[in-house]
Amino acid sequence: MKNYNLKISSNWKIHRDEFYDIDPFDKSISDNEKLLNVFYQEELLLLNNGEYYIDLGWYGGNQNGHYKLYLYKGENWHNCQLLEKFSTIEYQFLTKSINTIARNVDDKFYDKIDTNCGSIDEFSSNELVSKFQITHSILKHPDKILALEFYLKSNKNDNEGDSWFFGHNPNIENHLLSLTEQDSIKLQTEIFNWNEFEKFKIADPISDTKNKYIDGHYIYGKIFLSIDDFEKLEYLIQNLVVIVWGAKKKTN
Predict the structure, then answer these.
(1) What is the C-alpha separation between 153 and 156, in angstroms, rounded?
(2) pLDDT tens digit sequence for 149-184
(3) CA–CA gap between residue 212 and residue 209 (Å, rounded)
(4) Strand spans (E) along 125-163
């Protein structure tokens, strides 16, 4: 690999490798080098491991653009199973994310995930499918993070559809519960089967009066769930896919 920061196993076949060790916001690197090797490259990296493809490019044509990273399953990215998609300008975060995603493909992590995204263009923020999806608030203010919040998505298929759970790290429960309404972030959660909360003895969501259902599937506003037993949390994590959504931030 031309970028020595990438630790990609021999399981991956290289189709295009133009992702150099160049931080687009490193002032010590010449503008000409950035233009040639970053800003003009909509296809910096293309790798595949069997059916899984990693695709990386820079979109925007100049320093006002951003990296865009995809992981999809299937040769045709207009008719594929999209597993990851995010944009970032953070070079260090990007290289770590590529390594993590590639390693988890090797470990067959994504074999457990099923999405109905039929093409790259169909992906939206409501279809996050892995615990490596992280919002920009984390990237911009890593020193202010109190907690990562996560979804737990059931893998089982039944007549009522897959179940979605929203929860938080119990190790920092007190921090989350002490947050004021001003501190909270807006969340959008698709929920198919509320009965699953009872099944795992997860507390009912604490939500404000602004929450509302749309077409019986979506609820908007702040939602907090507490898990009363760490063993139950471990059971959930073993049987469900964990999805990182965002962060709570301190306020002055």
Answers:
(1) 9
(2) 333 333 333 333 333 333 333 333 333 333 333 333
(3) 8
(4) 145-154
